[in-house]
Design a protein that fits this description.
This protein is α+β, with helices and mostly antiparallel strands. The chain has two domains: 32 residues; 102 residues, Immunoglobulin-like (Sandwich). The chain has two helices and eight strands; from the N terminus they run ααββββββββ. It has a five-stranded antiparallel sheet, with no helix packed on it. It has a three-stranded mixed sheet with strand order 1-7-8, with no helix packed on it. A hairpin with a 2-residue loop joins strand 3 and strand 4. Helix 1 crosses helix 2. It is elongated, with a radius of gyration of 23 Å.
């Protein structure tokens, strides 16, 4: 009786391993033919986000943010609203914050892994002398 049970367990274990292996191979083949889906999967599982905060004397509709990496670039924030751009690249990630089309802040940080998602909080305020102050807070695994 014990031998029959052991052979069934061995048989089901072998079937489970085979199914897992075939599933893994199918996933690798799928993403090799559909690399954009791989990129979207990374973003879905571990998103980047950008939040713009302004004081009352700053018009959020005049805030734009651009992102640059060694591989891609694009506009993350347009007229104060997210563009849904996926900005997830390994290495140097550079950002430029504009207010009324004038550059008010540039910041850079490095990502050690392109699966890492980060939360970016950009706060704009205007002082009495009308200079715009920009503070950037980045929360994520690559920020120390």
């Amino acid at each position: 009786m014990n031998t029959i049970f052991q052979s069934k367990v061995l048989k089901y274990s072998a079937i489970t391993i085979l199914i897992t292996l075939l599933t893994g191979i199918a996933i690798i083949i799928y993403f090799s033919y559909n690399p954009n889906d791989y990129y979207e999967l990374r973003e879905y599982l571990n998103k980047n986000s950008m939040i713009i905060k302004t004081t009352k004397n700053i018009d959020i509709d005049k805030v734009d943010v651009y992102w640059f990496s060694d591989f891609k670039s694009g506009q993350v924030i347009k007229s104060g609203k997210t563009t849904n751009l996926v900005y997830k690249e390994y290495g140097s990630n550079r950002f430029v914050v504009l207010y009324k089309k004038d550059t008010v802040k540039k910041f850079v940080y490095g990502k050690s892994n392109n699966w890492h998602g980060h939360k970016h909080i950009i706060s704009l305020s205007k002082k009495e002398n009308k200079n715009i102050k920009v503070e950037v807070q980045i929360i994520g695994p690559d920020i120390k």
